[in-house]
Design brief:
about 65% helix, 2 domains, mainly alpha
Length: about 250
Amino acid sequence: MARKTRRSSDRRSIQNDEGPFLTKHPFSGVPSDVIRSAIGEVGAKAAAELPNLQQQLRGMLLRCEPTYFLANMAQSYLFASIARDGTIDRPKYKDGALQQFHLEFAQAAFLTIDPSDLQPIFAHPKDIQDISDKLSELLDAYKESRFAMVGEAQSKEEQYLIALQERVRLHTLAVRNWGYYEPALNILRGVFGPLDDHCARLVGLTAKELISAFDILLRATERESASFRHKLAAAFTCKSKRQMIEEYHR
């Protein structure tokens, strides 16, 4: 009987840490005009840094061949293979890894550079890492630079309007060019279809045939990449170099 009483007492002493809990927001006691001024200062500082960051990125991009850099980064950060059970096997990286809009920005930056100024060489791994870090830094500075307008807003209506505009702007920064693959192909065929005869005279293939050719190349690349990643994944589970080599070449 004593044992039962002791166990019951132990259960009652256990605290429930699941919540819910109420906590005070750290800025709840700060006047709104002070917060708005501080946010505006952050935005002004970021806006002042943008030109310098852009020049730094441009200098880094001059040291590598564009297609090599973009293809490697897209393969490393954006590629997702399909496992045998149909699930998506997407690489897992720490926060701050490059996303599609980072590479879109890099591509746009490459297009502002005269091809004769680019070095047709494969980038060193350190250069690729430096460019990746600078891309993240630059895009973060761009987003923060938009805060400068917050300090200029006077009325509540202006503040709400700016908040809505920036929400839409930052949302479209990340998703503006996304779409499903087949509909995107249909859009391309519809846009470039009228140029079929012109393309055929230039290269011997119509615009639609060129799109189909790149579609075939893309699908072949996806299959090879998925197969390569599966082989690497199996090899990396081995405990010795010999086992890794045997597993990879199985």
